[in-house]
């Protein structure tokens, strides 16, 4: 029976208005922010009380009011969560209200066209007038594809994983991985390679290559033992006409400059809802399988920082009620979809640290997190409560200042402006209020994205800055560890990113010379703090932080701090290995004459196939040389093997592997007691099979093997596409001594002027046996000769480093390589030299040093900090800042310096300046900066950087080695402008620092 529109204008209006009325607030008004005890109580009223969904049937129960006893109650269902409301409603069933006004209606779960009433919104009516709000499924009785218990891990330590192999080494227990729905879903079938998926009786298609890339990422992390949370996002794909982005993205999303790159979900058109439902069902079904074929995800974070929706869940300008009305549908769809396939799956909303104050001044773009929670709670309870949880981001008050213990806007009260690491305990205290509970329990909390900045330019970080970052992490982790109501602390990020507005949040510093902005270069100080903070070494690796924070004991600042509770994860045991030693008494764990024999792809591997007696392992695309490529085999109780003897693997690397100067094999074994044993061996990439073997320690002799991994890597941040062959894996009684040196050789000179410099040759022993004997530097090999060509190696145990010094006597060629002979084996290594020391000209440590404002610049000033990233000078404590006057965005803003007398740069090979700027020019496609030198004879040299990045230090460098007039430079000039916009009056600021030059 159709429902008359006497009271409401549609389902969206019903849901929003009912939620507001039930919470005691008039429609369109903002919910106040009382303390938890004063939150409005949602009371029962006439309408549907519950929608129970089983495998085949849906049961609707409710209350029509005592005055309607004996009256027909008609229940209809809308086929989608769309704002089309009840226009597409279909009759579901009719019941006669009992003497007390209660009613119950049962009907089929699937409609004739395949539509699943699991996602339906049900409305009850008497005599055509709707009673109560539309109601969604709130009681799932269906048999999910997976009913396994929610997996348990060792502790709360997590990471937004970029390098899965490294995450395992770090002991990561919780992971967050971005998933762009528009990046995997297509708007039509484009080839037979597409992955089809049926939802609601309709077929949809997914890009196989994009999905399989996610398989590789997710499976490696979950197989390594971490709980995976997928951050479900939407990005624009204008250059991909087959992407479903145009359907999935909210139709009101803004494309204005400054509006965000991450978009809101389209839950306002019927097509949008169907595609959104299909996409969410697809990801839940694929990554919740019981066999974990593609990896396993247990949590789904819907959108990013939705209280700052203008940027991170862009749905256009909307009041908080309008936005949440649309967003709550997406949240509910994800919750229902995920629990359809895994009944323990968890769904989260994502919020920033802005608790009672929005991140921006426009209330139609930015909302307080507290208001979002309250209004979502009201909407959820009015339409049938469901288990949505909180993924919070308690960054420090100022992301560029990691000393959160000094945050002034984070107080220990419910009405605090911000909730940061400093006062994170406020969040669980608030969520414990009766009115916010779900089924009598507080909604769960994970911290899914937060981190600590390392102050300074990302390519030149100081040890003090790195220690400050590490102290921030240590303090924050300990706080979260002793808050039982928070499930995990997932750190952002794994590797510093050059395009993150000047923030350096990673455990790794990035490689500025690589082709990707987050290529991993080296570990930062925080790396080992993160790695060992949940082990027996916890207090040891965090002791340094107490002085930085200004405390004597962690218990002084952390409630419930218990040092005995920190040792939650066993430290990996690293042992020596032997290379090419003769193996006796072997039992094969992997032979590949017939099939893969239970070995599966793991970290950074696309496929592994058996053939011709080997397992052929192929890289996943885009991996760095230094990342481990691995295959693994797991053992069950039925095929348990005692963890005794030597584990050996025979591996072949092709000659053209391009993995760098050294290549390595690692064997990693996990035993039934939870102990991990690993050993690394240097092997040659020569197209021949080489064996690596480690001896399992006596301490695990009573265990069985649970998992064995064989891993291969190179060095550096090149991105080769390579492969390796695994011939066999065996457990042996004994392995003879190495037939080639299992040693890592490195060489470094102490001066860029090589001849006469001290050359240090470092030998790292990876072998089981102590390193001893002699090393020789043959003068007929490589580019470098030394005055004394031999030295004795002091006896060096497994894992030790022997450092031997030589004096360079001559160089040849490009002076980059050195040959080192150990016995009958010779290794050619790259020699590292310190870069030429820059000669400073202008550093702005005291004043502006004679620089002046030029065209379209209103003023200049020496500053010690500034509002745009990276917020601090490139070097030292001062920088020069220029403030523009209003002018067209593409007009150059010019500053210059004219020395009192010409500067002689005869010895210079290059001259450089570091420049930084604000971004945000409306309509700009990019930015440009120029650096110009003028000589006394009027000639000039210029460098132009059209890939200039705002909010980071950019180097502008001029090669002057061939400029005849460089002996008399009379002017230094820098200009800055936007590209590709007609914006008439732009008033940016930009900064420069460290003007200097290099000599030969």
Order of strands across the main sheet: 9-10-14-15-16-17-18-19
CATH topology of the largest domain: TIM Barrel
Helix amount: 10-25%
Q: How many distinct domains?
A: 5
The CATH homologous superfamily of the largest domain is called: Glycosidases
Helix/strand structural class: alpha+beta
Q: Please work out how many helical segments DSSP would assign.
A: 13
- β-sheet strand percentage: 25-35%
Domain DUF5722: 150-557
Keywords: Signal
Signal peptide: 1-29
InterPro entries: DUF5722, GH
Topology, pairings included?
Blueprint lengths: L10 H12 L24 E7 L3 E7 L8 E7 L11 E7 L5 E7 L12 E6 L2 E7 L3 E2 L16 E3 L4 H7 L3 E7 H4 E2 L8 E5 L2 E5 L1 H16 L3 E7 L11 H4 L21 H17 L12 E4 L6 H4 L7 H22 L4 E6 L17 H14 L5 E5 L33 H6 L13 E6 L12 H19 L4 E6 L16 E3 L9 E4 L1 H8 L5 H12 L23 E2 L2 E3 L3 E9 L8 E2 L3 E7 L2 E6 L9 E6 L11 E7 L10 E9 L4 E8 L5 E7 L9 E9 L9 E13 L7 E7 L8 E8 L5 E6 L7 E3 L3 E7 L4 E11 L5 E6 L2 E8 L6 E4 L8 E3 L3 E7 L15 E6 L8 E5 L10 E10 L8 E10 L4 E6 L8 E6 L9 E11 L9 E11 L1
Parallel strand pairs: 1-8, 9-10, 9-19, 10-14, 14-15, 15-16, 16-17, 17-18, 18-19, 22-31, 35-42
Antiparallel strand pairs: 1-2, 2-5, 3-4, 3-6, 6-7, 11-13, 12-13, 20-21, 23-32, 24-34, 25-28, 26-27, 27-34, 28-33, 29-32, 29-34, 30-31, 30-33, 35-36, 36-40, 37-39, 37-41, 38-40, 41-42, 43-53, 44-47, 45-46, 46-53, 47-52, 48-51, 48-53, 49-50, 49-52
Helix pairs in contact: 1-9, 6-8, 8-9, 11-12, 11-13
Keywords: Signal
Protein name: DUF5722 domain-containing protein
InterPro entries: DUF5722, GH
């Amino acid at each position: 029976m159709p429902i008359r529109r006497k009271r409401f204008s549609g389902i969206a209006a019903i849901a929003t208005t009912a939620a507001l009325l039930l919470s005691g607030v008039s429609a369109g008004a903002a919910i106040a922010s009382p303390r938890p005890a004063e939150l409005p109580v949602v009371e029962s009223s006439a309408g549907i009380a519950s929608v129970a969904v089983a495998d085949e049937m849906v049961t609707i129960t409710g209350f029509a009011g005592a005055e309607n006893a004996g009256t027909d109650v008609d229940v209809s269902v809308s086929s989608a969560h769309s704002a089309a409301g009840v226009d597409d409603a279909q009759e579901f069933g009719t019941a006669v209200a009992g003497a007390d006004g209660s009613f119950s209606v049962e009907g089929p779960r699937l409609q004739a066209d395949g539509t699943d009433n699991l996602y339906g919104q049900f409305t009850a009516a008497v005599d055509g007038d709707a009673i109560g709000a539309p109601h969604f499924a709130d009681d799932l009785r269906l048999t999910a594809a997976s009913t396994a218990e929610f997996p348990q891990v060792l502790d709360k330590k997590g990471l937004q994983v970029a390098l899965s192999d490294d995450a395992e080494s770090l002991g990561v227990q919780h992971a967050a991985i971005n998933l762009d729905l528009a990046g995997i879903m297509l708007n039509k079938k484009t080839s037979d390679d597409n992955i089809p998926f049926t939802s609601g009786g309709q077929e949809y298609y997914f890009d196989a290559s994009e999905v399989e890339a996610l398989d590789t990422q997710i499976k490696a992390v979950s197989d390594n033992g971490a709980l995976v949370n997928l951050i479900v996002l939407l990005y624009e794909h204008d250059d991909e006409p087959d992407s479903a982005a145009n359907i999935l993205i909210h139709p009101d999303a803004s494309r204005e400059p400054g509006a965000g790159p991450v978009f809101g979900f389209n839950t306002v058109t019927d097509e949008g809802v169907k595609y959104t439902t299909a996409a969410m069902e697809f990801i839940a079904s694929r990554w919740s399988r019981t066999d974990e074929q593609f990896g396993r995800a247990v949590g789904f974070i819907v959108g990013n920082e939705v209280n700052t929706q203008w940027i991170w869940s862009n749905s256009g300008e909307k009041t908080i009620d309008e936005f949440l009305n649309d967003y709550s549908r997406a949240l509910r769809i994800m919750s229902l979809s995920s629990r359809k396939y895994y009944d323990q799956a968890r769904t989260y909303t994502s919020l920033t640290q802005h608790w009672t104050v929005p991140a921006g001044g426009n209330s139609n773009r930015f909302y307080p997190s507290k208001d979002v929670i309250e209004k979502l709670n009201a909407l959820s309870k009015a339409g049938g409560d469901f288990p949505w949880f909180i993924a919070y981001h308690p960054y420090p008050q100022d992301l560029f200042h990691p000393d959160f213990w000094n945050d002034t806007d984070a107080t220990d009260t419910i009405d605090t402006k911000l909730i940061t690491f400093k006062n994170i305990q406020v969040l669980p205290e608030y969520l414990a209020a009766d009115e916010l509970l779900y089924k009598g329990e507080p909604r769960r909390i994970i911290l899914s994205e937060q981190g600590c900045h390392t102050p300074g330019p990302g390519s030149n970080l100081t040890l003090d800055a790195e220690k400050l970052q590490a102290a921030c992490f240590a303090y924050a982790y300990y706080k979260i560890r002793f808050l039982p109501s928070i499930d995990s602390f997932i750190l952002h990020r794994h590797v510093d990113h050059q395009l993150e507005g000047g923030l350096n949040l990673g455990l790794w510093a990035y490689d500025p010379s690589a082709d990707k902005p987050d290529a991993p270069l080296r570990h930062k100080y925080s790396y080992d703090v993160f790695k060992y903070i949940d082990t027996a070494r916890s207090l040891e690796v965090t002791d340094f932080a107490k002085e930085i924070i200004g405390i004597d004991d962690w218990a002084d600042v952390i409630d419930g701090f218990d040092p005995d509770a920190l040792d939650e994860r066993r430290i990996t045991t690293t042992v020596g290995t032997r290379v090419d030693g003769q193996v006796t008494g072997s039992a094969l764990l992997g032979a590949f004459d017939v099939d893969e024999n239970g070995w599966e792809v793991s970290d950074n591997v696309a496929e592994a196939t058996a053939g011709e007696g080997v397992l052929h392992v192929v890289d996943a695309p885009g991996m760095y040389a230094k990342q481990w490529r691995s295959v693994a085999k797991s053992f069950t109780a039925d095929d348990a093997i005692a963890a005794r003897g030597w584990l050996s693997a025979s591996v072949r690397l092709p000659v053209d592997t391009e993995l760098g100067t050294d290549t390595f094999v690692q064997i990693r074994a996990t035993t039934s007691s939870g102990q991990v044993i690993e050993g690394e061996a240097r092997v040659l990439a020569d197209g021949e099979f080489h064996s690596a073997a480690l001896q399992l320690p006596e301490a695990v002799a009573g265990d069985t093997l649970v998992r064995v991994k064989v891993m291969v890597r190179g060095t550096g941040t090149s991105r080769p596409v390579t492969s390796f062959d695994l011939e066999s894996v065996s457990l042996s009684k004994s392995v003879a001594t190495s037939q080639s040196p299992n040693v890592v050789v490195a060489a470094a000179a102490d001066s860029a002027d090589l001849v006469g410099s001290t050359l240090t040759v470092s030998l790292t022993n990876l072998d089981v046996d102590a390193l001893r004997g002699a090393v020789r530097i043959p003068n007929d090999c490589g580019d470098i000769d030394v005055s004394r060509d031999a030295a004795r190696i002091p006896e060096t145990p497994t894992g030790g480093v022997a450092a031997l010094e030589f004096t360079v006597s001559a160089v040849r060629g490009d002076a980059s390589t050195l040959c080192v002979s150990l016995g009958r084996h010779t290794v050619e290594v790259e020699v590292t030299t310190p870069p030429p020391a820059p000669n400073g000209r202008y550093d702005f440590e005291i004043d502006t040093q004679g620089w002046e404002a030029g065209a379209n610049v209103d003023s200049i000033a020496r500053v010690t900090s500034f509002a745009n990233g990276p917020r601090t000078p490139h070097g030292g404590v001062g920088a020069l800042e220029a403030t523009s006057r209003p002018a067209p965005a593409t007009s150059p803003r010019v500053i210059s310096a004219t020395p009192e007398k010409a500067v002689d740069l005869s010895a210079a090979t290059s001259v450089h300046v570091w420049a930084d700027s604000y971004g945000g020019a409306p309509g700009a496609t990019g930015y440009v900066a120029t650096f110009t030198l003028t000589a006394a004879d009027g000639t000039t040299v210029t460098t132009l950087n059209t890939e200039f990045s705002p909010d980071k230090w950019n180097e502008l460098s001029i090669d002057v080695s061939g400029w005849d007039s460089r002996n008399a430079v009379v002017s230094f000039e820098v200009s800055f402008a936007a590209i590709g916009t007609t914006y008439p009056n732009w008033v940016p600021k930009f900064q420069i620092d460290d003007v200097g030059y290099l000599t030969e």
